[in-house]
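ESCALATION

Customer reports they have been waiting on this structure for their group meeting. Please prioritize. Original submission:
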Amino acid sequence: MANHHYLPQFYLKGFTGGRGQFLIWSVRQKAFKKNGQFFSPASHFFLPDDNTINNDGEPDDYLEELYSGMESRYARILEKIKAVDQGFGLDQQEVVLLNYFAGELFWRVPSQRPVINAATDIHQLNQLGVAVIDKKTMRPLDPEKFADAVKADPSYFQRLRNVLPATTYWNLVDCTWPATVKTFPGTFPPICGDNPVILRYPEKADPFLDNLIFPLAPNKVLFRIRDMTEKFAPNIKFYIDMLQLMQAREYVCCVDQEYLLGLKEAFQQNFSSVAELRKFIFDHLDADKP
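Update from on-call: job pushed to the front of the queue and completed.
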């Protein structure tokens, strides 16, 4: 049995402390695991055999190999971004891959499994932006045949997780606003939740067309926001970290217990819901908002 990380270890290492470890906050238990013990990135944010599919009765790790191959490319891009505060020197292909990384990660994490697990018919897939074509006729597949194919494929949902970002990436053609990486002052302790990609309208489940915030490192954040203001208060990072905590499903990693607890307390004092916090953040970044 293999531990397949839905948050790649190279990504998690960016949110560790000096010894390459972090604390783990359990969302369900509302407490730090093992009384504040530090853990390595390999120890969490995985599911056993999550990317192992059933191929004619035999286990096949080709999906894990696909993810691993892409991760090596994403890791090189993040290293370039983390090396400097501005002028990251990304070429066009690297910008494309950075956008793709955000969308791929959105669909890999367990928080999106209810959406994926509900996509069992052609109509639901079409709503997610996926067209189902008969390879022989190159015409839309008959819905009944598709339903039978889903029932016959025990690895359907695992394959779909990998297919969704590849087929919906073209939504970026309609996304005319650029992606930009901002560097924040180094006063914010590392923190990362198990659902790190932040969308303005998560119910639409469209990471390539929706306004998006994606923390890349403790002081580096990818923004892709329509009409984003050029100037904003650096403390917006505090609220982004707060939303990381509040939209997490199972775990949050951090290196400072007091910072995480402070985020939790500030949320309870200032917001009545996660939706209100989300709106506050995106309104703050919108150039058209007063």
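Sent to customer with the following note: The CA atoms of residues 21 and 39 lie 5 Å apart.
Escalation resolved.
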